[in-house]
Amino acid sequence: MPQLNPNPWLFIMLSSWLTFSLIIQPKLLSFVTMNPPSNKKITTPNTTPWTWPWT
């Protein structure tokens, strides 16, 4: 069964992960977001209970 032969696929998988982790990932992480998150205070909405007419 040739699918179980890890000889070519192991090298392809390792080389692709090394390429991603050493070359592509630092380039992607170097981008700065255009809208950084702000330090706003979290406000909870003031809700009132619903008054049901039949109770």
Walk me through the structure:
The structure is a single chain. With 55 residues, the chain is mainly alpha-helical. Helix content is 42%, strand content 0%. It contains 1 helix and no strands. It has one helix at residues 7-29. The longest helix has 23 residues, at 7-29. It is elongated. The N and C termini lie far apart (73 Å).
Could you name the key traits of this structure?
55 residues, mainly alpha, 1 helix, elongated
Q: Which consecutive residue ranges, at least 5 long each, have pLDDT under 50?
A: none
**What's the total count of β strands?**
0
- C-alpha-based Rg, rounded: 27 Å
Elements, N to C (H/E): H
Could you state the oligomeric state of the chains shown? single chain
What structural class is derived from the secondary structure elements?
mainly alpha
What integer is the average pLDDT? 81
**How much beta, percentage-wise?**
under 5%
Subcellular location: Mitochondrion membrane
Keywords: ATP synthesis, CF(0), Hydrogen ion transport, Ion transport, Membrane, Mitochondrion, Transmembrane, Transmembrane helix, Transport
Main location: mitochondrion
Family: Belongs to the ATPase protein 8 family.
Set out the fold topology.
Elements: H1 7-29
Provide a quick synopsis of the model.
The chain is an all-alpha fold. It is built from 1 helix and no strands.
